[in-house]
Structures are given as structure tokens and as C-alpha cells.
């Protein structure tokens, strides 16, 4: 069982109050989402020990980071915080910025080399932050935080201000930093594409309080079999689809299909602008509004539209994919 980040926090300041009690598994990526001013950054700051005015408790696994008698300072919490802006040291090379992150914890050189490889930082090592693009700076900032060997990663809108091409470039690096290194993360984001691609669960907050857990997409494994003028041809189950992925793209992908990103029909779909259509089989019907579908060799809990009759278990249905968010898996 995954360890848990648990907290019961309150904070009051002019015109704003935060009051949240949660248990978040330290496993995969938890997106924290909600309207502007909801308190997402404030929550991360409280958990990281950056808000002295917050009262309550914070536990990371078995470790108490805060309670009535204890307040562990930010640098000793094991939290790696990637801020909205890169905050690199401008007078140091990229290599020295990375080494700075590692120095405090006496991190082995091999670990730095692994981070350089994972985040593709080798070509940047001798450069100064001033000359880096927005996407490159974020990558270095992520690398510097990873070099401090955190137990959990906090990503506060790490792609703000990047265009969709730069986002597509940095997202695989975030996947490698989290899923590749097995590092759990909290990701503050408003952006649907970031949440659907990266998140394993979604915590929604509003006006400083809990507003529910959001739905996460189902993920289907796919593999690149060839490239064409329009991108990469991927195979998912018995279907093929073309996605605009770069020629250098990884071979294995998880295709995140959001709840509004597919249609299920009881007969084969006619021609349309679907990305792909897969034959699926109805499995268990647990009675929680979802139906277990066997799609492309996977069983997924698919939200069944209210009022539509569920075909009996064992029936064939068609799973027509309208929208996917691809995530590399290595
Ligand atoms: N340093 C500060 N001092 C006083 N109030 C602040 C400070 N920073 C944020 N606030 C206020 O606290 C509330 C929560 O802000 P916070 O930045 O946590 O929201 P958010 O959900 O992260 O918003 P956004 O999506 O716009 O980044 C807002 O009302 C904001 O105006």
C-alpha cells in the first residue's frame, strides 16, 4: 500500500480562509485544481512549510511535519517544490545549478547523471540560465529539485506561459520525473490537457475547501509502429490511429481517454471523425455508474451514460475514441 500525505490545515488571512482535511496516496500524480484564487498555491505552500500562519497537522508517511508542538522547516520536509517561475541562479551554469540542488543532501554523482539523462540536460550543462528558453529553464528547475532527492514533488503550474509545442516537449520529462523515478507528485494546474495527461487522481478545491475528487481518464496502452506525414501511427488493441507526435517519439504510450473522449455503442460505428474504434466486451456492472469494459486487452471502469441500458455481461460493444491525451511510458 502506498504511503499517504495526510493533513488537516487551516489558514486565515484577509478575505480568504483555507480549511482542508485530506489523505492523498503518495503514488503517481495528484492534480490539485480549482478556480483562480481557490487556494491551490496556498495549500502547497502550507504543506511545504512556507506559510507559518497555517495551523493544524501535516504528515508525510510516518513523519510528522507539523502538529501542535512541531514545525519542521521547509528544507527538512523532503518536499521538492517547482515554482511557477524557474528561479534558477543566473550567475551559475546549468551544471552548477544542478549541483547546488544536490549539495545539501550529499547526492551521489550517479544520481545527477541519471537526472541529466532523464531530462535530456546534457546539451545545456555549460549554459547560463539567462540564455535558456522557457521550456529549457523549467526542465533545469525540475532537474535541480530532483537533485535534492525529495520524497514528494510539488509542481505549481510548471507549464504556465509555455505554448502547446513547448508543453508537449516538457510533459514527457515530467512523466519521467514522476513515474520514471517513482516519485509521487502534487500538480497544481487548470489546464485540461496537463491534468488528463499527467494526473492519476484529481483533487478539486474551491474557496479554500474541498470540492470533490474529479474523474480521471482511462488509459490504454499503445505503441508506435511507424511514422507518416501527419505524425506517428500507433496500434491500440486491433485499431490503428495517427497522432501528431514528433518523429523522435518514444515507442510506448498510454493513451488517456477522458470521460467525454469516447462513445460506446452496441453496433459498429459508422464513418465519422473518430480517432479509432475498438471492439470491446461488457464485463461486470458494479452499480456505481460504471461498467467494466474489456478494451484492447485491458479492463477499464467506463462511466455509463445515465438512462442508457447496459447490455448483459459478455456482450460485444464498440469503443469509439474521439479524443486522447498521449503519455509516453518509456
Ligand atoms: N501573499 C499573499 N498575501 C495575502 N493574500 C494572498 C497572498 N497570496 C495569495 N493570496 C490570496 O489568497 C487566496 C488564495 O490564493 P492562491 O494563490 O492560493 O490561489 P490559487 O488557487 O493558487 O490561484 P491561481 O490559480 O490564480 O494561482 C486568494 O484570495 C489570493 O488573493
Helix-strand string: EEEHEEEHHHEHEHEEEEEEEEEEEE
How many strands, which pairing sense, and closed or not: the largest β-sheet? 6 strands, mixed
Helical/strand content category: alpha+beta
**Judging by the overall fold, what is the CATH architecture of the largest domain?**
3-Layer(aba) Sandwich
Q: Reading side by side through the largest sheet, how are the strands ordered?
A: 6-7-8-3-9-10
Rg over alpha carbons: 22 Å
The overall strand count is 20
Q: Beta-sheet strand percentage?
A: 35-45%
Indicate the percent of residues in helices.
10-25%
Small-molecule binders here are: adenosine-5'-triphosphate
Q: What overall form do the CA principal axes indicate?
A: globular
**What integer is the average pLDDT?**
90
Assembly state:
single chain
Number of helices: 6
CATH superfamily of the largest domain: P-loop containing nucleotide triphosphate hydrolases
Poorly predicted regions: none
CATH topology of the largest domain: Rossmann fold
Amino acid at each position: 500500500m502506498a504511503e499517504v500525505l495526510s493533513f488537516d490545515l487551516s489558514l486565515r488571512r484577509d478575505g480568504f480562509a483555507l480549511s482542508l482535511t485530506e489523505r492523498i496516496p503518495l503514488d503517481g500524480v495528484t492534480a490539485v485544481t480549482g478556480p483562480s484564487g481557490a487556494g491551490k498555491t496556498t495549500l502547497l505552500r502550507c504543506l511545504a512549510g512556507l506559510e507559518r500562519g497555517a495551523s493544524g497537522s501535516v504528515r508525510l508517511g510516518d513523519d510528522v511535519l507539523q502538529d501542535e508542538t512541531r514545525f519542521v522547516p521547509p528544507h527538512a520536509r523532503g518536499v521538492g517544490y517547482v515554482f511557477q517561475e524557474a528561479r534558477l541562479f543566473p550567475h551559475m551554469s546549468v551544471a552548477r545549478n544542478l549541483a547546488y540542488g544536490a549539495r545539501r543532501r550529499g547526492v551521489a554523482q550517479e544520481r545527477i547523471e541519471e537526472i541529466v539523462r532523464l531530462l535530456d540536460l546534457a546539451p545545456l550543462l555549460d549554459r547560463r540560465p539567462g540564455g535558456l528558453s522557457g521550456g529549457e529553464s523549467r526542465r533545469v528547475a525540475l532537474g535541480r529539485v530532483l537533485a535534492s532527492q525529495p520524497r514528494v514533488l510539488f509542481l505549481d503550474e510548471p507549464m504556465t506561459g509555455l505554448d502547446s509545442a513547448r508543453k508537449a516537449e516538457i510533459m514527457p520529462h515530467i512523466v519521467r520525473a514522476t513515474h520514471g523515478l517513482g516519485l509521487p507528485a502534487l500538480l497544481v494546474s487548470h489546464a485540461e490537457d496537463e491534468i488528463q495527461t499527467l494526473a492519476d487522481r484529481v483533487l478539486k478545491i474551491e474557496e479554500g475547501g474541498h470540492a470533490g475528487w474529479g474523474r480521471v481518464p482511462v488509459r490504454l496502452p499503445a505503441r508506435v509502429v511507424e511514422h507518416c506525414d501527419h505524425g506517428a501511427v500507433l496500434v491500440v488493441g486491433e485499431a490503428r490511429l495517427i497522432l501528431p507526435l514528433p518523429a523522435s517519439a518514444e515507442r510506448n504510450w498510454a493513451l488517456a481517454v477522458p470521460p467525454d473522449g469516447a462513445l460506446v455503442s452496441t453496433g459498429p460505428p459508422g464513418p465519422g471523425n473518430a480517432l479509432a474504434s475498438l471492439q470491446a466486451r461488457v464485463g461486470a456492472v458494479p452499480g456505481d455508474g460504471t461498467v467494466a469494459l474489456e478494451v484492447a486487452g485491458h479492463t477499464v471502469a467506463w462511466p455509463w451514460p445515465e438512462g442508457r441500458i447496459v447490455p448483459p455481461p459478455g456482450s460485444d460493444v464498440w469503443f469509439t475514441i474521439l479524443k486522447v491525451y498521449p503519455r509516453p511510458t518509456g
